[in-house]
Design goal:
Blueprint lengths: L13 E3 L1 H7 L4 E5 L12 H13 L4 E5 L5 H12 L3 E7 L8 H8 L3 E6 L5 H14 L4 E3 L7 H19 L8 E6 L3 H10 L7 E6 L4 H19 L9 E5 L10 H14 L8 H14 L5 E5 L3 H6 L19
Parallel strand pairs: 2-10, 3-4, 3-6, 4-5, 7-8, 7-10, 8-9
Antiparallel strand pairs: 1-2
Bound molecules: pyridoxal-5'-phosphate (PLP).
Length: about 325
């Protein structure tokens, strides 16, 4: 049993993307609307934070120390979650490059977080978070240090619960059992939690991870390690690695969507009104479309993870996109 604070409005809805299917053909696509978790603009990150903060409160912590890149959705959500549960918050981010703060850093500051622009590169952030937490302990605080993305075995419990939430929606007739569940993989906690949770549901769905920031082999190892840790936290059956596969969805680089990713995002916007960001959503959705268009496996569920601040900020980039969007030879 894990401690939890309530942040999200759950269950999130499921959507049958029929207009999208009419354009694409292939297998039917469903969407799990974790862009609508209802806590700030946290998207998928509301789920791990319920358990990270639950654990911090149970252990009488008074300060959340975490970090992320300047566009991190997790940082904004973590600062807000700390605030509403009565903890202070320190956020480590990369040194300012002269561009104005985006919506996520502004939200973190509005929630009262102290920003430390000290890391040279995103990869350094977790070690700086650990050092800062040690400094805060020496100053008399009772901090909890949380790595980028909130991807720890405890954080992953949020997505293990989401697997049960989905199983309940399938049992209730809200959607057919997905043959494939497709989700973006960044720091890996969301996919890991799903993998751990699926093992304890009756669902036979396969999980398809679309790695947006790490080489697939590296992301694969991270997800497996976190899923095993998450199952141990829950006392749940070990995750079944055979129901999981990972694909490379990095495209031109972190945060930069390729032409096919963009076209897939424009199609989602113009058929179903879905907003997808370049870093996670567009890439993961293009991978989902690729799988559904290949066809023949059954319903494909795209797990929409949010990313609304960045999606809204970059809408202008696609205003002149071809109509219908050109999915290119890159997709079947
Ligand atoms: C919008 C969005 N989607 C997907 C992800 C990836 O989730 P995870 O880091 O759990 O792999 C993130 C991570 O921050 C995110 O902000």
């Amino acid at each position: 049993m894990s401690d939890r604070v309530r942040l999200a409005v759950l269950p999130t809805p499921v959507l049958s993307a029929e207009r999208l299917h009419a354009v694409l053909g292939g297998d039917p696509i469903w969407v799990k609307r974790d862009d609508l978790t209802g806590f700030g603009v946290a998207g998928n990150k509301a789920r791990p934070l319920e358990f990270l903060l639950g654990d911090a409160v149970r252990r009488s912590r008074d300060l959340l120390v975490t970090g992320g890149g300047p566009d991190s959705n997790f940082v904004a959500a973590a600062a807000l979650a700390a605030r509403v549960t009565g903890l202070g918050c320190d956020v480590v981010t990369t040194v300012a490059d002269g561009t104005p703060d985006g919506a996520n850093l502004q939200l973190a500051r509005a929630a009262g977080a102290r920003l430390h622009r000290v890391a040279e590169r995103r990869e350094q952030i977790d070690s700086v978070v650990a050092e800062l937490a040690a400094d805060r302990t020496a100053q008399g605080y009772r901090p909890v240090a949380v790595p980028r993305g909130g991807s720890t075995p405890i954080g992953a419990v949020g997505f293990a619960r989401a697997a049960h939430e989905l199983a309940d929606q399938v049992a209730g007739g809200l959607l057919p059992e997905p043959a494939v569940i497709a989700i973006a993989v960044g720091s890996g906690g969301s996919a890991a939690g799903l993998l751990a949770g699926l093992a304890a549901t009756g669902l036979r769905s396969r999980l398809l991870g679309l790695s947006v920031s790490r080489p697939p082999a590296e992301a694969d190892a991270v997800v497996r390690r976190l899923a095993t840790g998450c199952a141990a936290v829950l006392g749940a059956p070990a995750p079944d690695p055979d129901r999981w596969e990972i694909r490379d969805a990095r495209g031109p680089g972190f945060g930069v969507a390729g032409p096919t990713d963009r076209a897939a995002a424009v199609l989602a916007l113009r058929t179903e009104g879905l907003l997808l960001d370049d870093t996670y959503g567009a890439k993961a959705f293009a991978g989902t479309v690729r799988r559904a268009r290949t066809g023949g496996t059954g319903p494909v569920l795209y797990w929409h993870t949010g990313g609304l601040p960045s999606a809204v900020a970059h809408l202008g980039d696609t205003a002149d996109a071809a109509d219908p969007p050109d999915l290119g030879g890159d997709l079947p």
